[in-house]
Design a protein that fits this description.
With 323 residues, the protein is of the alpha/beta class. It is 40% helix and 15% strand. The protein has one domain: TIM Barrel. It binds NADP nicotinamide-adenine-dinucleotide phosphate.
């Protein structure tokens, strides 16, 4: 288990600003990896250094290893996966990560995040733990499977894929995750698909190890998690978004976003990713296209003005619906 990366207090301070400035940290990849590009990192509540955009690995099946290798080679430094064979081929993620390590990138340079998926989210024919074991044991077994799949001895992040139905179950699972954190197997914890502010704040206040990450679908139906994001902002919790492009076609088609794309000579998805990054969200992209990978990374090469951010914000407000 390698030592913790140092916590960058400057990053934390800037992270707390709503329209934070870019934090640029340059790195050069050794050996055959040819990329030398600017990248942006943030340090989480738990002191874990994370890139501002993550590469998501869902639904890639047998292409997973090659796509993960390509994403890391092109400059991604954060990978999101799950111990959920129904949607993620986690061993393929491990192969892709191993391939870039063989070319000289160190494990410590990669932020690797996986999930514990409760029974209800698993394919009953392919459950990666003993479903008859206690919930706490399921969490430990799932994490052991992830470590094996990912060919690593620690995870940078372990996310509870979705809340459990009962408070006692939530408590048992979270405490098991805290146990893994205490052993140093997992560097930080998080939760996903949690759209209830009372539930999230309850977890936050009850937890010994606070959730450092909330990973949610970013869409109009939940009013873009406005209150949850406000809470995350106050508590320095990182809000990660998925469905960012697919759930927002109207925003991407909007004349304002098209105008900004012309101004910054980029695509409308890039403008939207850039906007959400500037308001403090960490987007996930699961693109399968090398061009889109490069475009998604390039969002850190320009910056929208505060007024432009407010104009895009106004469009989000227009599309919001009350759940
Ligand atoms: N916690 C959860 O329950 C949960 C649920 C869903 C997803 N996730 C995570 O989030 C990741 C991302 O999933 P997602 O649902 O947001 O969708 P996604 O897999 O990122 O797909 C988004 C779509 O956007 C396109 N795209 C990406 N970058 C683009 C660009 N620059 N220009 C134009 N199109 C672009 C992709 O097409 P191309 O492939 O053609 O580029 C794809 O059709 C997943 O892989 C997974 O890790 C988590």
């Amino acid at each position: 288990m390698p030592g913790r990366l140092p916590c960058d207090s400057q990053d934390q301070e800037r992270w707390s600003q709503p329209h934070f400035c870019c934090i640029l940290s340059r790195y050069r990849l050794p050996l055959k990896l040819e990329v030398s590009r600017m990248d942006l990192f943030v340090t989480s509540l738990s002191g874990v250094r994370m890139p501002r955009i993550l590469y998501g690995t869902a639904w890639k099946k047998e292409r997973t290893a090659a796509l993960v290798e390509q994403a890391l080679t092109l400059g991604f430094r954060g990978i999101d996966t799950a111990c959920q064979p129904k949607h993620y081929h986690e061993p393929g993620v491990g192969e892709g990560v191993q391939a870039v390590q063989d070319k000289g990138l160190s494990r410590q340079e990669i932020y690797l995040q996986s999930k514990f998926t409760p029974f209800g989210g698993q394919d009953p024919m392919r459950i990666p733990y003993d479903p008859k074991a206690s919930l706490a044991q399921q969490v430990v077994q799932s994490c052991q499977t992830s470590l094996k799949n990912l060919q690593t001895d620690y995870l940078d992040g372990l996310i509870l894929h979705s809340p459990l139905a009962h408070a006692e179950e939530m408590q048992e699972v979270w405490q098991a995750m805290e146990g893994l954190h205490a052993k140093g197997v997992v560097r930080q914890l998080g939760i996903s698909n949690c759209y209830s502010l009372p539930l999230f704040t309850q977890l936050f206040h009850a937890a010994k190890v606070k959730p450092a990450v909330l990973q949610n679908r970013f869409y109009a139906e939940t009013r873009y998690d406005r209150e949850l994001r406000q809470f995350c902002h106050q508590q320095h919790i990182i809000y990660q978004s998925f469905w960012t492009l697919t759930a927002n076609p109207r925003i991407l088609r909007h004349p304002l976003v098209q105008l900004l794309a012309r101004k910054y000579q980029c695509s409308t998805p890039q403008i939207f990713f850039r906007y959400i990054s500037q308001i403090g969200i960490m987007p996930l992209t699961g693109t399968t296209s090398a061009t889109h990978m490069q475009e998604d990374l390039a969002i850190f090469e320009y910056e929208l003005t505060p007024d432009e951010c407010l104009e895009v914000e106004a469009q989000l407000l227009t599309h919001e619906t009350i759940p």
